[in-house]
């Protein structure tokens, strides 16, 4: 009677077939980049060839980990904002890729805070090994409180002196200065900032915007229009503003979404861009190149930022000391300014 060979049942069985250690097999199957790519590919191929499947639940239980990272988007100030927002989409893609490459799943949560316990619910749930918060909204105090007791947490947002939370983001003050300085260099003197100043990142962009204007003697007092991030709400607010005020000759928007709403409202009033009004956005989301006219904007390197978030989080999970990352913004010149 012919005896059938049994496939590998354990990591040790697969390690013997592959001629490597059990640790190498485990890390290869988890996609850990510590293992050389060629070795990872060979181990995965052997596992598929022999029909080997790792018991992920048992593995996580043994390692005392969940295999998931919580990614939270707190919408304290923008309750109508959706995950389809272009900036969220541009950041979540590379963030998910970076987590997957390190063998982790992403547990996504869009939160409208109703009390101060929204972040505690995730960190204390037992469902995740760490947390990434995308944006501080108006929830800085809550994030600070949790950061004081919970180590594996990093935040996409603005850094401030004395702050406990570890952040990744661009130099928002420099970005605001960069945008305003470009408009002032074109001879524009009636500038406006469109964006909600209670958001820490937007407040910093507004500070830089104001700093640049204060250095130009003949510049007019800048206008501030606090608008929401959702497309329709920002468009309505800008259209109403333009119907009752003389248009500025230059606009710095706190985000590309707000800038796109400004392009639409200005165009409907027959104003030429950039001849009558120049517009600069912030973020450089993918569709910024496809607006009419193409949008001049301040670029944040979100792909680098996403990978920095993951790297800092894993270092904190390992008990290492880390510092916040502040990236330099870049002015991307297109037609609108």
From TrEMBL:
CDD domains to which the protein is assigned, alphabetical: HTH_LacI (cd01392)
InterPro entries to which the protein is assigned, alphabetical: HTH_LacI (IPR000843), LacI/GalR-like_sensor (IPR046335), Lambda_DNA-bd_dom_sf (IPR010982), Peripla_BP_I (IPR028082)
The keyword Transcription regulation belongs to this UniProt entry's keyword annotation: yes
Protein name: LacI family DNA-binding transcriptional regulator
UniProt entry tagged with the keyword Cell membrane: no
Keywords, comma-separated and alphabetical: DNA-binding, Transcription, Transcription regulation
UniProt GO MF annotations: DNA binding
Pfam families noted in UniProt: LacI, Peripla_BP_3
Species of the source: Qipengyuania qiaonensis
Domain HTH lacI-type span(s) in chain numbering: 10-63
Superkingdom field: Bacteria
């Amino acid at each position: 009677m012919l005896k059938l060979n049994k496939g590998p049942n354990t990591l040790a069985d697969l390690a013997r077939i592959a001629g490597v250690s059990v640790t190498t097999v485990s890390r290869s199957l988890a996609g850990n980049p510590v293992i050389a790519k060629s070795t990872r590919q060979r181990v995965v191929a052997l596992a598929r060839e022999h029909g080997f499947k790792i018991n992920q639940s048992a593995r996580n239980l043994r390692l005392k980990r969940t295999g998931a990272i919580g990614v939270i988007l707190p919408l304290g100030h923008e309750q109508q904002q959706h995950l389809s927002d272009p900036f969220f989409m541009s950041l979540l893609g590379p963030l998910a890729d970076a987590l997957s490459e390190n063998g982790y799943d992403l547990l996504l949560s869009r939160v409208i805070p109703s009390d101060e316990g929204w972040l505690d619910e995730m960190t204390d749930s037992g469902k995740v090994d760490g947390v990434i918060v995308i944006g501080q909204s108006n929830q800085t105090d809550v994030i600070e409180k949790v950061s004081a007791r919970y180590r594996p947490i990093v935040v996409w947002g603005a850094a401030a002196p004395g702050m406990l939370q570890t952040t990744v983001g661009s130099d928002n003050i420099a970005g605001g200065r960069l945008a305003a300085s470009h408009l002032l260099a074109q001879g524009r003197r009636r500038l406006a900032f469109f964006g909600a100043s209670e958001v820490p990142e937007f407040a910093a962009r507004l500070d830089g915007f104001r700093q640049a204007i204060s250095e130009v003697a003949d510049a007019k007092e800048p206008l501030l229009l606090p608008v929401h991030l959702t497309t329709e709400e920002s468009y309505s607010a800008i259209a109403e503003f333009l119907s009752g005020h003389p248009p500025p000759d230059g606009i710095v928007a706190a985000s590309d979404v707000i800038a796109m709403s400004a392009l639409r409202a200005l165009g409907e009033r027959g104003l030429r861009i950039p001849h009558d009004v120049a517009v600069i956005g912030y973020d450089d989301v993918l569709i910024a190149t496809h607006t009419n006219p193409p949008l001049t904007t301040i670029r944040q390197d979100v792909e680098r930022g996403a990978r920095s978030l993951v790297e800092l989080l894993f270092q904190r999970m390992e008990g290492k000391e880390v510092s916040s990352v502040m990236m330099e913004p870049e002015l991307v010149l297109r037609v609108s300014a």
